[in-house]
């Protein structure tokens, strides 16, 4: 084939705008995409990590406005602290305004509860890597499913106890190891025990420590796409970690029924941004950045895992130096 | 063909929940759409048809722009494909459109291999996507997807039936690409002939087992319009970029002495239907079918051809990695063998050449000897002659000397004799 048979992206004179005398209909593809997405439904997997008693299950229930936590699923099980970190995941089908989502909440009871907490992050790391592994196995199958079920952990919410001082070694260790494989969103749990000044100084300390330890939490600076993105994400980074209060009980305040915690000295409104930052967390996680979180998991964390895994197998099987890309040899195989 | 493969019946262990309030994930489709707008879309159309049937004009008319087009000659020795990529934008949607045209299709005397370049092109695009997908460090979301999403097959408006070239080509392509047959230059066929022609074409396609693209019926919003359109296949189209005044508007049309054929008039031709189906309603489905059906089929066949299997002979799952490593070892061994062979061959050739050269040298040497001998012989002969000549010369010299002596002697003897005679005469 002597003619140009490979499409060379010659951007023919910048963008040729279609004359508005006649409507072609290219932008109808947005509608088509939307229809397809609605039909297929979405998947979202979120993991909650933190010591017991920090209000993880309550926060999940508050976020998704229904009983999504593990405790709600098995209401009669005795609550005991397990000897090792367990991983329990519960899936739910939820629907809102025609949009269907399969939400999976992964709980980690036993994290940070033992006397000796060394390496308690390991079972969690293993679980996350196992999800990547099963996705990878599906993907390299010859006969593979049209839509590979996505069980990869998209987001990990890490609960920091509200000591008001600084991060504990456990927190630093955990976040240091896991920020490389999953998107971590740190939150200050039970924030109603901190006054606003304490809260601000606590947050500043935490941010400093994260920076000092080289921990990149979501939204990661290096994945900002353009200036607009960076602006939005900078605002979020200024607020990290979010100080949240969770509640699934409704009270009457000013004639409205709102979620909150009633105490003798007042009622804390969960969705009031003057009281706590739950609304920001919810907006970040669900209303504005959910797709972005999933994309970063798919295209960056998963790809990193894949590269590492394929390189490892390369070394394992041959004595060749590990910098031969498999694809190079794949195409050699083809030439054969 | 439907893409609803996520089992929508509740899986084991998945509960259905109802929400107590507004959570907000109904904005997810919007988030998805926004991301796609930022990324831009990509669509590739392949147009197959004889030279001069109106492929480029139809593309111009469909997308309402003027793509740079060249008129091709009818004397191409082989079918070639010409691909051109354009960046289009409408409101906030950016589309990277690639139009691939066949050049010289149907012009050759022997059309047996005409379909092959087209099949090769489609396979090449699948192959490069497969290679990208198999890389270790890959960037799929940045990858410019060049796989052919839709194939418009232009049928000439003979009014009778499909040509055998059409049937053969479409049969070869139906498992690789979404084929949408269109009847080109439909203004040459009358309405009643068109109706019969369409029926004939569809029945021929069915009886030959050609699977053309069916507009999807699983989504309720578009099922109705798609069903109607499925009944209108193949679309009879007319393309034109010239504008003619009809009434008080300028419309795209073709002007004849007997009337004006308006491109966007549904009574005149099916152009509007084609545009709606191809672009407005089913573009995403075309892309999805290409990825989930045609590409997966190609990938499966390709990997199986290379010897990869999901389960080996004992039905134990074999990892791709193991098979791949085994093949790699095999390949390296063969490579080594070939290298040895080549080395041996090289050594052999060198030896042969050396022997040849030695032979030549010997021959040269013997010729030289021979010449030298001849030369020596001649020289000897010449020497001989010279010696004879010398001998002759010397003997002649001797005889001459002797003769002279004799003469001198005889002269003196004669003189004496004369003297004697003289002397005797006196007495």
Automatic annotation (TrEMBL), chain A:
InterPro entries: G_SEPTIN_dom (IPR030379), P-loop_NTPase (IPR027417), Septin (IPR016491), Septin3 (IPR008114). Keywords: Cell cycle, Cell division, Cytoplasm, Cytoskeleton, GTP-binding, Nucleotide-binding. GO terms for molecular function: GTP binding. Residues 40-312 form the Septin-type G domain. The keyword Cell cycle applies. Belongs to the TRAFAC class TrmE-Era-EngA-EngB-Septin-like GTPase superfamily. Septin GTPase family. PANTHER family: SEPTIN (PTHR18884). This is Septin 9. It comes from Haplochromis burtoni.
TrEMBL record, chain B:
Residues 415-427 have a biased composition (Basic and acidic residues). Gene3D superfamilies: P-loop containing nucleotide triphosphate hydrolases. Residues 408-427 are annotated as: Disordered. Residues 39-305 form the Septin-type G domain. Residues 343-391 form a coiled coil. The keyword DNA repair does not apply. GO terms for molecular function: GTP binding. Keywords: Coiled coil, GTP-binding, Nucleotide-binding. InterPro entries: G_SEPTIN_dom (IPR030379), P-loop_NTPase (IPR027417), Septin (IPR016491). The keyword Coiled coil applies. Belongs to the TRAFAC class TrmE-Era-EngA-EngB-Septin-like GTPase superfamily. Septin GTPase family. This is Septin. It comes from Astatotilapia calliptera (Eastern happy).
